[in-house]
Amino acid sequence: MGRKAWMFVGSELAGQRAAVVMSLVQSARMCGHEPWAYLRDVLQRLPTQLNSRIEDLLPHRWQPA
Predict the structure, then answer these.
(1) Residue 9: helix, strand or coil by DSSP?
(2) Which string of DSSP letters, residue by residue, matches 27-65?
């Protein structure tokens, strides 16, 4: 199933990126967060987030703004 579903992802690098995003979405679900709200908030915060505090955006440490 997965082999055929991922055949048109584009490239190996695109497949890795897709896997990272899907992993974040599933982790957010497992932590009880609504995935779209989590991704929207993280993507809005990311440009201004300090590198030393980037771990605060991981699903298990994330708090809605």
Answers:
(1) coil
(2) HHHHTT--HHHHHHHHHHHGGG--GGGGGGGSTTT----
Write out pLDDT tens, residues 11-52.
778 888 888 889 999 999 999 999 999 999 999 999 999 999
Tally of CA atoms within 13 A in the half-sphere of 4 that contains its CB: 1
Q: Is residue 45 within 8 Å of residue 57, measured between CB atoms?
A: yes
Asked whether 65 and 48 are in contact (CB, 8 A), the reply is no
Per-residue pLDDT band for 8 (boundaries 50, 70, 90) equals low
pTM of model > 0.90: no
The CB-based long-range contact list for 55-58 (8 Å cut-off, 24+ gap) reads: 58/27
